[in-house]
């Protein structure tokens, strides 16, 4: 078991997000498990790295002012980053969509769904009775009656 030196720890902190764990282990001459354990103890995590997303302070201010009431795709387009990166950045800044904006989005989605149903012939929704199918009238399929020998006979 090799003990980690301070220089190795500092080097590990610098290169952890830049290459795979197996390659880092090979670089230090240690096992993959040893590298993972050391990273866990140092609090290093893989994944989202704010440093890689290049957003100026002016863009952050713009995002703070506009993200709560604007579509995420439009914010991302304006900032020149992906929509997912925009969501992550907003979450890190503590931003959320306003309740009014969310209600408007839901109403728009419902309107679009209704238009699509009407256009594709899948409207009205399930459970709604139309003029040619009313409650109490005969249906296409008759109910089956089970007899004591489990054979079904249509009534």
Write a brief caption for the model.
This protein is mainly α and 155 residues long. The protein has helices at 6-15, 21-28, 32-42, 57-66, 72-79, 83-92, 99-120, and strands spanning 144-146, 152-154. Strands 1-2 form a two-stranded antiparallel ribbon.
Notes on the protein architecture:
The model has no long low-confidence stretch (mean pLDDT 81). A two-stranded antiparallel sheet has the order 1-2. It is mainly alpha-helical and 155 residues long. The chain is 51% helix and 4% strand. The chain is built from seven helices and two strands, in the order H-H-H-H-H-H-H-E-E. A hairpin with a 5-residue loop joins strand 1 and strand 2. The termini are far apart.
SSE topology string: HHHHHHHEE
Strand adjacency order, main sheet: 1-2
Class inferred from helices and paired strands = mainly alpha
Number of strands: 2
Q: Catalogue the unreliable spans.
A: none
Strand percentage:
under 5%
Our Rg estimate from Cα atoms comes to 30 Å
Kindly report the average pLDDT value: 81
């Amino acid at each position: 078991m090799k003990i980690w030196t301070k220089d190795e720890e500092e080097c590990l902190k610098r290169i952890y997000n830049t290459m795979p764990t197996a390659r880092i282990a090979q670089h230090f001459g240690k096992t993959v498990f040893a590298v993972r354990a050391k990273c866990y103890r140092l609090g290093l995590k893989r994944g989202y790295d704010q440093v890689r997303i290049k957003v100026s302070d002016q863009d952050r201010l713009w995002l703070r002012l506009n993200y709560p009431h604007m579509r995420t795709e439009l914010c991302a387009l304006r900032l020149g980053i992906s929509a997912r990166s925009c969501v992550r950045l907003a979450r890190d800044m503590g931003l959320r969509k306003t309740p009014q904006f969310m209600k408007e989005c839901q109403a728009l989605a419902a309107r679009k769904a209704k238009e699509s149903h009407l256009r594709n012939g899948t409207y009205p929704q399930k459970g709604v009775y139309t003029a040619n199918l009313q409650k109490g009238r005969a249906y296409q399929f008759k109910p089956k009656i089970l007899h004591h020998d489990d054979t079904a006979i249509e009534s």
